[in-house]
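Hi all, posting the design record for the shared folder.

TITLE: backbone redesign
STEP: 1 of 1
STRUCTURE INPUT:
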């Protein structure tokens, strides 16, 4: 069964927070989120949004990278979307927003997200 979010519910709790690495994690080369720049914890719970961001990534990210990451995580947490297959889409596991990405490319990808017109569109199974 497809698990589309219930937009009649209002998110009563919205939490966006940074994850910080300890001095030991930094010196050992073991980042807190390792292969991830952020994560969504409120998936399938329409009353809460919980998004964690790696501070070490955020401080070095471009504006486009930050926007793409936030839209990506909101796509998971608010829209219950899974990953897409097109590398130019916000919901791809390797988030759009590299140094080579332009604002126009970001706007196009953002529009595809809201129109739900991207390759491999799928909802997370919330059952």
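Okay, here is what came back for every position:
SEQUENCE:
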């Amino acid at each position: 069964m497809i698990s589309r979010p219930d937009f009649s519910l209002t998110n009563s709790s919205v939490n966006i927070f940074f994850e910080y690495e300890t001095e030991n994690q930094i010196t050992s080369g073991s980042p807190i989120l390792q292969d991830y720049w952020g994560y969504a914890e409120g998936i399938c719970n329409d009353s809460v949004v919980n998004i964690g961001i790696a501070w070490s990534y955020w401080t070095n990210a471009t504006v486009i990278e930050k926007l793409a990451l936030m839209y990506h995580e909101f796509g998971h947490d608010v829209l219950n979307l899974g990953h897409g297959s097109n590398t130019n889409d916000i919901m791809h596991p390797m988030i759009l927003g590299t140094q080579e990405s332009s604002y126009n490319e970001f706007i196009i990808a953002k529009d595809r997200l809201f129109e739900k017109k991207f390759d491999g569109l799928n909802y997370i199974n919330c059952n």
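COMMENT: DSSP finds four helices and three strands in the chain.
Let me know if anyone wants the other runs.
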